[in-house]
Amino acid sequence: MSTLDTEDRIINASILLFAQKGYPAVTTKEIAKKAGVSEMTIFRHFESKYNLFERAFDKFAFSPKFKSLFESLEWNLETDLNKICSSFQDVLYRNQQIILMHLKNEELHPHFETMLSEFPNEFKKLLIRYFEEMWSRGAITENPETLAVNFLATNFGLFFTSLVMNELTFETDIQTCITNYVKIFTKGIACYNNSKIAE
């Protein structure tokens, strides 16, 4: 077994346990058992539980390429927001373990808090720029920053509903929910006399 495989197994095991129990409650002995390695192997690769926590966080931290996504939009409000919303939900879903880990660890190192805040902050900036451009094109009349904050908050709410309940309480799949939400959101902010807005 390669060093990389061993480290990946340890990291994957640790993040599952951290998400379930929180950082303070998890021991290196538990992680070793979960990963199928000796406790000494953990210390040989990571030196300490804290270093392992840091590596696990770095591996699963958000790294979506949203800049390229926003560069490929069609400037059709409903089409673009569907694409943005779907991509955002996908990123949250792929990183749900790190989110659970964060929720289980109320006092994280400032480094981790900064990393966790970078993604929504960057996403908000990209959304504001998008809505500003749509405003300049005459597609919307609402304040771009207000729209970005509301769109971001609703997306987090949708994700956490799915995460906490395991399935949406009204038994609707996530993509249908995204489509319906975007349609309602678009109708609420669109200038209907603009040809770029989807019918």
From TrEMBL:
Which ranges carry the HTH tetR-type domain? 4-64
PROSITE patterns linked to this entry:
HTH_TETR_2 (PS50977)
Instruction: Output the Pfam families linked to this UniProt entry.
Output: TetR_N
Instruction: Indicate the residues that the entry says bind DNA.
Output: 27-46
Q: Which GO terms describe its molecular function?
A: DNA binding
Does the record carry DNA-binding as a key word?
yes
Instruction: Write down the InterPro entries for this protein, in alphabetical order.
Output: Homeodomain-like_sf, HTH-type_Tx_Regulator, HTH_TetR, Tet_transcr_reg_TetR-rel_C_sf
Q: What keywords does the record list, in alphabetical order?
A: DNA-binding
The protein's name in its UniProt record:
Transcriptional regulator
Species source reads Desulfosporosinus youngiae DSM 17734
